[in-house]
Amino acid sequence: MKILFLGGTRFIGPHAVKRLVEAGHEVAVCNRGLSLGAASLPSGVVSITGDRARLGEYRETFHSFAPDVVIDLFPYTEADARLLIETFQDIAGRVVAISSCDVYQAFGRVNKIESGPITTEPLTEQSPLCEKRYPFRGARPDREYYDKVLVEGFVMGQQSLPGTILRLPMYGPHDYQHRVYPYLQQMRDGRPFILLEEGFASWRWARSYVEDIAHAAYSAGYSKNQV
């Protein structure tokens, strides 16, 4: 198979690319070429230099590569999802869009984005999603239109191009948000006591290992059903 990554050189991407190349697939990555991770990609990976915000400008190049599956690592907004589908609906056979566990209403309530009581039961794929749109508007200028719920809805609502959604948990190593750094670094230091702020210590959330997530992305490309 031919698999095209949008992104692919920063965090999850290099692991997923390596997994696919080892399995004998032909892989291409499309990004701005600014990440140092590009240097660690396996030989034979096709590199396409381009801006995620202007995918339509590279349709001829994408058509020449003719991917069976497109794995989009950075669809943050509904506009991103729309551009993804419009660009590849007559080129690829499936798109895999990377989402996040922050789509869940339970996440929004814990972070005071959504109103209502804190949910204590385990989450499933059928658990309620956030009702408030653009959850980080006003708090993070770089995510004014960020909304993974809208991304998921658009990708999964298309008849012209099958889609698969992966809602990722927290993961590592080399998480550039350093979400588990406060305690892992203390473990690396060999400290006899690990002191954590009470709220942080009591936080419970899904976690995974980056290479396992890479395998999930690899497997999703073969999915016959929309998940």
Q: Can you walk through the features of this model?
A:
The protein is α/β, with parallel strands linked by helices and 227 residues long. The protein contains eight helices and eight strands, in the order βαββαβαβααββααβα. The strands form two sheets. A six-stranded parallel β-sheet has the order 3-2-1-4-5-6, sandwiched between helices. Strands 7-8 form a two-stranded parallel sheet. Helix 1 crosses helix 8 (210-220) and helix 3 (78-88) packs parallel to helix 5 (148-156). It is globular and about 55 Å long. The chain starts with a strand and ends in a 7-residue tail after the last helix. The model has no long low-confidence stretch (mean pLDDT 87).
Structural class: alpha/beta
Task: Specify the number of helices.
Answer: 8
Strand content: 15-25%
Query: In which order are the strands of the major sheet placed?
Result: 3-2-1-4-5-6
Oligomer: single chain
So what's the overall shape? globular
Give the biggest sheet.
Answer: 6 strands, parallel
Radius of gyration: 19 Å
Q: Termini separation (Å)?
A: 20 Å
Q: How much helicity do the residues have?
A: 25-40%
Outline the low-pLDDT stretches: none
| Pattern of helices and strands | EHEEHEHEHHEEHHEH
The total of beta strands comes to 8
Overall average residue pLDDT: 87
